[in-house]
Write a structure and sequence with these properties.
- The chain is of the alpha/beta class.
- The protein folds into 2 domains: 258 residues, Alpha-Beta Barrel (TIM Barrel), CATH 3.20.20; 299 residues, Roll (2,3-Dihydroxybiphenyl 1,2-Dioxygenase, domain 1).
- It is 30% helix and 26% strand.
- It is built from 17 helices and 26 strands.
- α1 links the parallel β1 and β2.
- The longest helix has 16 residues.
- The radius of gyration is 28 Å and the shape is elongated.
Length: 571
């Protein structure tokens, strides 16, 4: 199916929007009226520019407050039709009336829409009637369809909008009762589930399919079953998108449609972490922390300034570069790395060039939205990435593997990152959480594989605080590890206030040793969680965790405590 997008969905001027939309690979656009009114180009010039970019104008919108009025405003309609002729658009979106003067009379609405369609036909234009979720008398899509059917004109059909339908909780199965040829246009938008006025919800919080909570694949299935053959078009009103980079947003929009249509080559979800790579100009700080945690340097790369540190199946690479310590790359265990890269590329993830010497492992990397490099690996292969290192045996110890990795995202790329990890890696988003921070709010969303083997956490921190990253390492016996660290390297552990333990003891019966060791505690319906934190080196800190009896969370209740202590140490 052809892919289209409303110009209101991205930031910039109309010409900037058209350039970005074309570059992202879209076939057509919906021209939003305000974008045209503010554009210095005449409609004929917009038509020429759009055609020159290989785009069609699939819809002009919106035309408001026409039907079921005491007198239909045909003068205004005729002017819009003449404008559309100059623009080269042949489909006009008419929204259901919200005027206080509108009359709740379906026969009158049908009569006036039939008259509008007759006038439109004289200009070679069709009318797509849409039920706004907050329409004064018509706010359900099947109500709009009844009026269109009553009007009975070949140039009048319905526009179906996923937001207007699902935000009201309407059952989309009724779409299958509408003949496909009478569905003139389809607009797609996802949204998070919010308890708020539907108009404000619509104007500020829509997002691309896969970034919200609606069942977009199910909705599209009903539309296809009805026989709709027109474009899939995105219409998203979102405050963040209006401020984000135009080209990035357009690419993200296209990725959402590719994922929604399930056209990307299939690849199995990564099963875990092969490694985490820290970059730093001076490696002494990261080396000291890893040594204290029980890691041993087990390999050196022959052609790159990279060291391999291991403990159990937890592997950390240290890469000397002119940067403060930060997490630069993540290796993902993949059953089929080539298929994983093929899928990522089809979903518009940038594949990064990588220099390698003869005989070195051919690892393909893609870039995540925040710039983190993601490598697809199969460590068990005899000629895998580990064969590039001159290696000794990894250290034994209580740390067994990387449990999860948390990345702080720029606020305007958070939704993009969620869609990226959801579509490219096949991870499932968990509930979005917010926590108090001394300087604002921390927003967090975990992304997990179905078996829990791969866990990523995406955070947004207040803009005025450092964007920290952390690697969580799983332990078999956290208390024993904490005793050893407290005895030998107390300076590396994040100090937890006594007030935290006073409150914890009021809520749960806990081992008094937790207070002495600086270990935090959480519980869910499955089990318990023990964890502690190291101090921050550059932008990175480590967390040691132990999941007891099937605990599934991340100790989120303790995040405000950790953030407050980190802030106090930074100052």
């Amino acid at each position: 199916m052809r892919r289209s997008i409303a110009t209101v969905s991205v930031s910039g001027t109309l010409t900037e929007k058209l350039d970005a939309i074309a570059a992202a690979g879209f076939d057509g656009v919906e021209i939003f009226e305000n974008d045209l009114l503010a554009c210095p180009l005449r409609p004929e010039e917009v038509r020429q520019r759009t055609a020159g970019l290989g785009l069609t104008i699939d819809l002009y919108q919106p035309f408001r407050d026409f039907e079921a009025m005491p007198e239909p405003d045909l003068r205004r309609a005729e002017r819009k039709f003449r404008l559309m002729e100059r623009l080269g658009a042949d489909l006009l979106l008419v929204c259901s009336n919200v005027s206080p003067h509108a009359i709740g009379d379906d026969e009158l609405a049908a009569e006036q829409l039939r008259l509008l369609a007759q006038r439109a036909a004289e200009h070679g234009i069709r009318i797509a009637y849409e039920a706004l979720a907050w329409g004064r008398h018509v706010n359900e899509y099947l109500h709009a369809w009844r009026i269109v059917r009553m009007a009975d004109h070949p140039n009048l059909g319905v526009c179906l909008d996923s937001f207007h339908i699902m935000s009201r909780g309407s059952d989309p199965i009724g779409i299958e009762a509408i003949p496909g040829e009478k569905i003139f246009f389809l607009q797609l938008a996802d949204a998070p589930l919010l308890a708020m006025d539907v108009l404000q919800w619509s104007r500020h919080y829509r997002c691309f399919p896969g970034q919200g909570s609606f069942d977009m694949p199910g909705f599209l299935t009903h539309v296809r079953n009805a026989g709709y053959a027109g474009p899939l078009s995105l219409e998203v009103f979102n405050d963040h998108f209006r401020q984000a980079d135009t080209h990035r947003t357009a690419v993200d929009a296209m990725r959402s449609l590719i994922a929604l249509e399930a056209l990307a080559p299939q690849a199995r979800t990564p099963t875990g972490f092969a490694f985490a790579e820290l970059i730093a100009g001076d490696l002494e700080g990261p080396r000291a922390v890893l040594t204290a945690l029980g890691f041993a340097r087990s390999g050196l790369h022959p052609t790159k300034p990279v060291e391999l540190w291991e403990q159990g199946r937890a592997r950390i690479l240290l890469n000397r570069s002119a940067e403060e310590p930060a997490l630069g790359a993540i290796g993902l265990e993949s059953p089929d790395p080539a298929a994983a890269v093929e899928r990522a590329e089809s979903l518009l993830a940038p594949v990064l060039p990588r220099e390698r010497a003869e005989g070195e492992a051919n690892l393909a990397a893609i870039a995540a939205p925040d710039g983190t490099q993601l490598f697809f690996c199969r460590t068990a292969d005899p000629y895998s990435w580990r064969a590039d290192f001159t290696r000794s045996e990894p250290a034994g110890g209580a740390i067994t593997h990387i449990d999860h990795i948390a990345l702080t995202q720029p606020w305007h790329y958070f939704d993009e990152a969620e869609l990226f990890y959801r579509s490219v890696l096949g991870l499932t988003p968990q509930e979005s959480l917010e926590f108090p921070d001394p300087y604002g709010l921390l927003r967090s969303k975990a992304m997990t594989s179905s078996d829990g083997g791969l866990r990523m956490v995406l955070n947004i921190a207040p803009e005025q605080v450092p964007a920290l990253q952390h690697v969580a390492l799983a332990c078999d016996d956290l208390l024993a590890t904490a005793r050893r660290l407290r005895a030998r390297h107390p300076e590396l552990l994040l100090p937890i206030p006594d007030n935290y333990y006073d409150d914890l003891e009021a809520r749960h019966e806990i081992d008094p040793e937790l207070r002495e060791l600086g270990v935090l505690h959480d519980r869910d319906e499955n089990g318990a969680f023990l964890h502690l934190y190291t101090i921050t080196v550059g932008r990175v800190f480590f967390e040691l965790v132990q999941r007891v009896d099937g605990y599934q969370g991340y100790g989120a209740v303790n995040a405000p405590i950790r953030r407050a202590v980190q802030h106090s140490r930074a100052h």
